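Revision sheet: structure tokens.
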Amino acid sequence: MQIDNWFLIIIAFFLGVNIFNAIKMRQATELLNDGQKALLFRLFSSLRIYTLLFLSIIIIAYMYLANQSQDQYISIMYFACLFLSMLVIMLLSVRKLKQNGYPSAYIRTYLMVNLLRNIALLAMLAYLLLLMNPSRY
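Predicted:
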């Protein structure tokens, strides 16, 4: 198997985004007091379960539809659904943070980090999808 330059670029971008995000979130978490740090886990534990369930449904639906049809628009709809679900989850998280009085600097960092992570993840998924089935596109 030959690795092309796009794969290396996407992997480097994904790793770079993850390193940048870890640094920024560590800096943002230092702005929080001990009570706010402890509350973060409890705030998002129920949302995490619903997120995994919703994303599982999207993935299962895509797998089913992709096996039933060779239409390229199914993949476009899949990525649109993934992006929209990530956006909704991010906005719900921001709403929870605002309702619980987290500093605006922390919320801005959270938004930036999540947006970058979602873009990197979607780029990697799109590339892998194209790599697995190039004749479809």
